[in-house]
Target: Protein ARV
Amino acid sequence: MPVCTNCAYPAQHVYTTYKTKSNIRLGVCERCDQFLDPLIEHPDLIILLDLILLKPRVFLHLLFNRGSPPFDADKGVEIPAVERQERRKARIHQDVWKLGYLSVIAETTLRLLPAFTAGGGIAMNQLIRIGSIVLVEGIAQHAVTLCLALSALRLRGWYTMDNEGDKIDEKRRDGRRENFLPSLIPLTILYTSLVPLLLQLLLSIWYTPPPSIHEHLPSTSTTISFLSTLPFKVPPELMELETTLNHAWSRSDRIWVGTRLLGGMSAGFGLRVLLPTKPWETTAIVLAGWLAAAWISQISHILVGS
Model:
């Protein structure tokens, strides 16, 4: 069941088709009197730009409305609600698998790119090892994020296993809640993580990253101490801490840090559109997924070697 991309009010159909598929009429929301989903008529490039700009309407379009069948006014027959729901579940699961494959391939490529650009060959066992680690990290991240998000929703009473919520006023209906599926959570994270990964791949054309995300470039610039410019005396411990942080930052892979930070903020924003959680709850859920992936990464490198 689709929703309005302006107010998330549920609707039966996003648009209506007539004798030809090109002759359509967009539906109007009963609550806000706006078009239900103008992105239906937009090309994929506009949808990609909206996803990069983190517009809320693009998340509602991709998660709830994309691929929803229209009402055929010529035949006057609509697909039963149960069949539409089954089709939607199958489409969402298919999207999760597709985006998951792309995410694993992109992350594996990024981790193997330094060795490839250095002129060395990539052995098949190395490719399988890195790909397996990336896959396990992704599974751990999505599993922890999904469990914590569902727990928060259950505590709020927003999501129940039997999808039977309390009856509310017609004008206060929330299409996100009525059409919520647990698989929408990993799908949202995958949508928001692909753009930073592709950005890092593009930036790698002009920037050669370190041989590994756990190895760092040597520092070639002289850092200026901010604490030393203060008009009062700073304890030596703070000065040493500042020096250590500046040294670590100068030797770090800044593009990797920047794209991961962008991916985390994008994931948090996407989950905020999908879920009724508070900002601190969403941040904690995303950080917990990151920590789980980082822990799995450390364990994997210890077991199989770096």
